[in-house]
Amino acid sequence: MHRTARFVCLAAVTLAVAVQAQSVISARSGTIHYVEGKVLLNDQEISPRFGEFPAMDNGAVLKTTAEGRVEVLLVPGAILRLGESSSIRMVSNSLTDTRVELQSGKAVVECDEIIKGDAVTLMVGGKPVSLLQNGIYEAKAKPAAVQVYKGEATLLNDGQLTMVKRGHELLAGDAVAAQKFDDNGTDDLYNWSSRRSGYLALANVSSARTAGDDYGSYAGLGSGFGYMAGGWMWNPAFGMFTMVPTDGMLYSPFGYGYFSPGTVDYAPYYYGNGGNAAKQGSNSRLVSSSSGTSASATPVTSSRVSSLGGLPASGGGFSTGLARAGGRGR
After folding, report:
1. Strand pairing category for 120-124 and 97-104
2. Do the domain assignments include residue 6?
3. Of 141, 163, 187, the domain-final residue
4. pLDDT at residue 231 above 60?
5. Of 110, 327, 268, 113, whose CA–CA distance to 198 is shortest?
6. Are 166 and 260 found together in one domain?
7. Is residue 290 a contact partner of residue 313, using CB atoms and an 8 Å limit?
8. Confidence class of residue 214 from pLDDT cuts 50, 70 and 90?
9. How much is the mean pLDDT over the chain?
10. Residues 199, 307 share a domain
11. Which of 43, 211, 235, 243 has a Cα at 20 to 30 A from 163?
């Protein structure tokens, strides 16, 4: 077994012992996290059920209808959101070589943190586009292209690499080229992705505290000790997964903050200071305007978390307890 794979298994087993209610989800890409409208997996409509997370095997095809949208967890720190009337095929769900083919429509990939050893590649127009940095990437099937709002990507074609950076569009058709585009102009899928990113960030603080308390109690070191592997963690109160870094803190490319168990006690210093609503944290309700940015934030108590109408808990909540989805050690 690969050294990294052994570490993943050890971390998952240790955390499962620490929290009996915690279940382990296979450490691979392709967990279907959230569904809006009618979405089909291998031509079968997905009916989300509490406690179940449909997964994309290699070769699986995910399709949305004219009113459907779906969110798919890739490697820890990366998530794909598929727009209406679109489809993707899972070429490889390995964490070290995640490959997703955009067959129709468009998709946005948000990379909050690319952990060393993980890789995300989009197949667009039959050509591989590697996402190299944290960022926001929007892929379109016709004409085949990838727009880099933030980050950096490369396309391999006939042995030649074409690099594209922020504010540039990579054309992936018969003629490969990079050109500038207006990255201040966003579409509905981008704006929806921004709102979804904010919702996931709201769940981070309580998940980070739970992870630290659970592992610290198991190790006999007290609460807030931290834990061993960062990744996607299930938050049953918010009805969604969230990203919990192994250590430190990070901001998503949309501007939302994620704290690790070791830094979560500093979260109040980052909240309520105005600016990007993503930084309001899990003690505030995110209220989004039609443009995809926050209009206001209203303080809420923990007793109100599960009843927040603004949080999309019904579409992607499939499990109880604290679950791991593709967690990786570093």
Report:
1. parallel
2. no
3. 187
4. yes
5. 110
6. no
7. no
8. low
9. 74
10. yes
11. 243
Is it true that the peptide bond before 128 is cis, omega within 30 degrees of 0?
no
In this structure, are 95 and 209 located in the same domain? Answer: no
Task: Write the pLDDT tens digit of every residue in 28-65.
Answer: 899 999 999 999 999 999 987 776 789 999 999 999 99
3, pLDDT greater than 50? no
Other Cβ atoms closer than 10 A to 155: 24
In this structure, the dihedral spanned by the alpha carbons of residues 308, 86, 183 and 252, taken in order and rounded to 10 degrees, is 40
Beta strands at 106-111 and 230-235: parallel, antiparallel or unpaired: unpaired
d(CA 307, CA 238): 9
CATH assignment of the domain containing 36 = 2.60.120.1440
Q: Rounded distance, CA 225 to CA 218, Å?
A: 10
As for how many domains the chain has, the answer is: 2
pTM score over 0.90: no
Nearest to residue 242, comparing CAs of 137, 162, 325, 126?
325
Residue 21 lies in a domain: no
Range of the domain at 43: 28-187
Residue in 124, 140, 148 with CA at minimum distance from that of residue 85: 140
Stronger pLDDT, 240 or 197, i.e. the higher one: 197
Residues 245 and 178 in one domain: no
Q: Is pLDDT at 223 greater than 70 in this prediction?
A: no
Separation of alpha carbons 63 and 43, rounded Å:
8
> pLDDT (tens digit, 9 = 90+) per residue, 7-24?
333 333 333 323 322 333
Which range, 51-55, 213-217, 309-313, 322-326, has the best average confidence (pLDDT)? Answer: 51-55
What is the distance between the alpha carbons of residues 34 and 14, in angstroms, rounded to a whole number? 28
Tell me: do 199 and 102 sit in the same domain.
no
pLDDT digits (tens, 9 = 90+) for 92-106: 999 999 999 999 999
Distance separating alpha carbons of residues 320 and 323, to the nearest angstrom? 8
Q: In what order do the strands lie in the sheet with 44-45?
A: 44-45, 39-41, 61-64, 87-94, 97-104, 120-124, 127-131, 152-157, 160-165
